[in-house]
Design brief:
By secondary structure, the protein is of the alpha/beta class. The protein contains nine helices and seven strands, in the order E-H-E-H-E-H-E-H-E-H-E-H-H-H-E-H. The structure holds nicotinamide-adenine-dinucleotide.
Length: 259
Amino acid sequence: MGLLEGQRAVITGGGSGIGRATARRMTDEGALVAVIDINGDAAHEVAAEIGGTAYVADVTDADGLRGAVDAAATAMGGITIMFNNAGVGSQSPLHEWAPEEWDHLLAVNLTGVYLGFRAAIPHIRASGGGSIVSTASISGTRPASGEAPYAAAKAGVAAITASAALEYGPEIRVNAVSPGMILTALTEPLLQFLPHEQARFERTTPLGRIGQPDDIADVVVFLCSNLARFITGQNIVVDGGMTLHGSGVDGIFEQVFRR
Ligand SMILES: NC(=O)c1ccc[n+]([C@@H]2O[C@H](COP(=O)([O-])OP(=O)(O)OC[C@H]3O[C@@H](n4cnc5c(N)ncnc54)[C@H](O)[C@@H]3O)[C@@H](O)[C@H]2O)c1
């Protein structure tokens, strides 16, 4: 029996990368899955692969997202899992962000998560409870330069997660996952543009590699399963240990003792 047997899941940003991998993994574990994405072709492709349903919606559009979630609930006979995963990234010096671009990053990465909660909670309650997971990022707790609105939004996702866990327990468990560097359409251009960075990421990550979408999908499945029945309000870092570095003397030991 699968870990998510009988569950009915909605995934935003399910057309690519982490969302797509999670759609597959949840299906493998016995869940019915509805894929929501702004990219209709991608959503339909994934839904066809997994025998699920696809809905085209922009997570920043409150009515559009609610309509898609309502339709998914009707098609699946309710919702027990919501994975708020759609996200976009970009970089710029802080004072050079165009206000519209700043607003867009906040709208997709932060408000889009709130709107996912808003749309899904009535359905999860009507189904007798369940689990909500949102995709934050290591950028939310350990921001890099150039990504202020993305980092602020992802820090906000962790905050929404904690607040909602307090509000909706015990019926609904609420958690976040914070991926490190994961190879998806979001990061591929960066790694192609700066190929030497790939080797640096691999060298400085204790687990020795860049992550794959399945590395995150497995944790999301775990968080939505009964194995995580006493976990709520947490922001689980899944980065191969990449963000453990930080001391000013970091790296000295390796140079002195492991030459
Ligand atoms: N890849 C990484 O290294 C990494 C690291 C930390 C966090 N994340 C987060 O993981 C999540 C998934 O990203 P990914 O790496 O799989 O990227 P991806 O680009 O492969 O997938 C993102 C998906 O979200 C969809 N999307 C974008 N804007 C949308 C909107 N307004 N409405 C609905 N759908 C929308 C895209 O069409 C795409 O299918 C994002 O929230 C991202 O911020 C990724």
